[in-house]
Amino acid sequence: MTTTAPAPLAPTPLGHAAPRPVPDGALRAAAPADRWHPVCALDDLVAERGAAALVDGVQVALFRLHDGTVRAVDHRDPASGANVMARGLVGTRGAVPTVAGPLYKQVFDLTTGRCLDDPALALGVHEVQVAGGTVLVRVHGGPPAGADGR
Amino acid sequence: MSATTSHLVVVGGGMVAQRLVEALLARVDAAADGPAWRVTVLAEEARVPYDRVALTSFFSGRTADDLVLGDRALWDDPRVDLRLGEAVTALDRDARTVATSTGAAYAYDALVLATGSSAFVPPVPGKDLPGVFVYRTLDDVEGLRAHVAALTAERAATGGGPVTGAVVGGGLLGLEAAGALAALGATSHVVEFAPRLMPLQVDEGGGEALKRLVEGLGVSVHTATATARLHAHEEGPRAGHVARMEFAPRVGADGADGADGAEAGDVLDVDVVVFAAGVRPRDELARAAGLPVGPRGGVVVDLTCRTEDPAIWAVGEVACLEGRCLGLVAPGYTMAEVVADHLVGGEAVFPGADLSTKLKLLGVDVASFGDAMGAAPGALSVVYADPVAGVYKKLVLSDDARTLLGGVLVGDASSYAALRPMLGTALGGDPSAWLLPEGAEGGAAQAALPDEATVCSCNNVSAGRIRDAVRCDGCTDVGAVKACTRAGTSCGSCLPLVKKLVTVELESAGVTVSKALCEHFAQTRAQLFDIVRVTGIRTFTDLVERYGTGRGCDICKPVVASVLSSLGAGHVLEGEQAALQDTNDHVMANMQKDGTYSVVPRIPGGEVTPEGLVAIGQVAQDFGLYTKITGGQRIDLFGARIEQLPQIWERLVAAGFESGHAYGKSLRTVKSCVGQTWCRFGVQDSVGMAVGLELRYRGLRSPHKIKLGVSGCARECAEARGKDVGVIATDKGWNVYVGGNGGFTPRHAQLLAEDLDDETLVRTVDRFLAYYVRTADRLQRTAPWLEEIEGGVDHVRAVVLEDSLGIAADLDAQMAAHVAGYEDEWAATLADPEKLRRFASFVNAPGTADPDLAYVPERGQRRPATAAERGLAAPAGAAPGPAGPTPAPGPRTPGGVLVAGPTLEVMPR
């Protein structure tokens, strides 16, 4: 199971200068298999719009929400198989931040990756933190949370 | 299904026959264990059953196709054999067979006679002259139209006066025929034997009001007048054709009174005569087979519609029920249902006919219901007459002035839908309230309609059934109730009442009909439009914080984006607006199934220079784009990756192209035929007009996509009547049609205005589009908008042509602001580095192509690889492609299919 790290985090000792790449350090040591990758500056992300990123060969969709937090889910749309999730519309359903699949319009929970319209679909969720104005992502492999095999 | 299938033969292919087949199959399908039937329909006319009641609409722009009844799928059902142009010539009751005009014979288990009527032509000398018509079938009206058109052309060539037509018969059909002649541009006369128009439906006062209204429309009315003979031209190009009507001496009159009638021996010069003096049942088959017929014709049937022969039934106008034939479609439909019920073992009986009528003749509303003449003993009449406004209304009440027995409404029949179901019940309150203009709505009374009251008489749907549909079947709007009960699906005159009943029922059930756009806005799109227009709010955040909740969704954000854009809030990617745009609008291209995009440059009116074509072709070749011509006369380039879009558009903009807005809920194309400039038939410059309109409305954001068409003559090669706005050239200018579309539910556009000059045409289309943009729901195209909006196309016509709402100046200003504010979205984007950043494929690798894209060649171009092709491809080793630089990952050829990565160049063959 994956969860999104609370964001934004307080600036870490590593992030104060926001240089790229972030030097290896405590974060990597804590998770050698899934290391944190600096992806872009927070300012590169437009509020309530997505952006795709290539992280460790995985296509990730990043979303900067209205409250300033950043979420990361799979860029691959499970409904179509195309890499398009970052181009979906961001919104809310109740209190839940969401993204709608651009091709077939299913709505996904950006926090859990769960599809709110079709329980058979889900997006993998990746960890994000913003440190010193830099967005860092830690990719999780394996089947996305909530998917039941489709 | 039972083991044996019986065979039903239906003689006749009219409206009632269609309903019988539909009703029978519905019942068979509903009862799994019931009897099984196959049906053969033998139709004399070579046309699929059509709406004969709407024949006259043929003259106001509807086509033969528009008049086809019901779902065409009925005739594709394997149990149904519809044989067109095959008339039954003989009936053998002993052998239970019928013989037809093709020489075929059909055995039947049950036979239904649905032969209808033929037009009655009185035995007037000259009745068979060329130029004399009847008004009964589509072929009749097509013949009439062609004849009048030929005469009109002839007159125009010789400088003669207008064509003059006379209709014999001032009843329902006669007035329709007179309206048809008027619509064809002929001077029109109505000759009626009785002392008033529509003698069967309206009383003397109603007849008077009707006559004044009809004469006000330029139709001459001759009542109490009989036609004695028709004379032919003796020489000239029309020798032998009808030339004159001669009238008979007035019955019981000396020629001095009855000033409205023609005098004895008077003549009227005419070019065309239409007989609409009644109908006679087509009972000849039954007569020859020895079945009893009524005193005035018609096959005698009992209340179950069965003839003396238990295997033979008769329905519709040919059936003589309780001594008379009924010439209206509603009782015919009821008979069809009765017979269908018996065929599956039911025991229905004909409940009695509702002979109520409401129609619009020449634009005049006329309604008659129940005991319209006040024939019941002691009946009282309440009359309201306003000769100035041309309104006459009468209610017939029981002797205690409480129970409604009937009525006549002329000039304003708006209360008909509410009054007719009240027949036989107490009106309550002051009956005159129903007659006064403000009482027309009759709100409280309508809601209190008894359950058994018939609301839709065409389909025999009661008020109770409509309430049930809401209460038990879960219908929450008129559309659902229509689908569920069939109420209002034939003539539609009861729809206002259905709407009222549905609303009241929903309210009393505590169901609030949510018009909310989505969970974030309780308002409709039209309300949001007004809020933005009036408050001047220009950002989504402002709007959702003041008038909504949350942060929006994929429903409301694009709506707000569209509204802001319609009201001139600037570039679609400017500031916060960028976050509102739907996926396609956000990159100004159309996403395809693999996540790449298609690109459509605007080609106004479909007119393109060779240089333009070469430029598009060069771009397609350089970027390896799949190329296809669209239905809207432009060129679609597929397979562009998001990071390629700016490079592609840089080239297109440099070649003079602009965004085609193929991605937007906005104007798409204005399709045109080549028109007068090249075509030998063209009467106006259709391409010039199309280019002008496309340049005027390009970029206009709207509730749904909008398509226009312009045809250079009535041949309509641009298929403009399949568009939201269709413009068709005439000798005098342009006709404009609105509300057409193709797609899932094709619609033909309806006539909005005729013979407009260029300037008036543009102003009319301006206002129509501006009003649509203002008031339509989200994703509502013009056709359903026209259907939903109170008052329909007549209301919209009044708004755009007569400024009935006093908003025309506002609408004009709205469109003027759009035209002045237009800029090409793509050119503006290319000039702004901030906007260009949105086209990065990956925020951390902006120029890297999506490595998962894969293509295969097909017919000299490329297409996305299927999942199977990808699956095969995945483990295969790289093999050199046939062309071009090898992309990464390299092309692979598993099992003979070449699969390439993000790019695949295909060499010309």
Describe the model.
The complex is a heterodimer of chains A (150) and B (909). Chain A has one helix and nine strands; from the N terminus they run αβββββββββ. Chain A has a six-stranded antiparallel β-sheet with strand order 1-9-8-4-3-2, with no helix packed on it. A three-stranded antiparallel β-sheet of chain A has the order 5-6-7, with no helix packed on it. Chain A has 150 residues and is mainly beta. The radius of gyration of chain A is 15 Å and the shape is globular. Chain A is 3% helix and 33% strand. The longest helix of chain A is centred in the first third of the chain and has 5 residues. The N terminus and C terminus of chain A are likely disordered. In chain A, a hairpin with a 2-residue loop joins β5 and β6. Chain A has a single domain, classed as Rieske [2Fe-2S] iron-sulphur domain (Rieske Iron-sulfur Protein). Chain B is an alpha/beta fold. Chain B has six domains: 179 residues, FAD/NAD(P)-binding domain; 146 residues, 3-Layer(bba) Sandwich (FAD/NAD(P)-binding domain); 93 residues, 2-Layer Sandwich (Enolase-like, domain 1), CATH 3.30.390; 98 residues, Alpha-Beta Complex (Sulfite Reductase Hemoprotein, domain 2), CATH 3.90.480.10; 155 residues, Sulfite Reductase Hemoprotein, domain 1, CATH 3.30.413; 42 residues, no CATH class. Chain B is 29% helix and 20% strand. In chain B, strands 3-2-1-7-19 form a five-stranded parallel β-sheet, with helices on one face. In chain B, α1 runs parallel beside α6 and α9 crosses α11. At the A-B interface, β2, β5 and β6 of A face α14 and α16 of B.
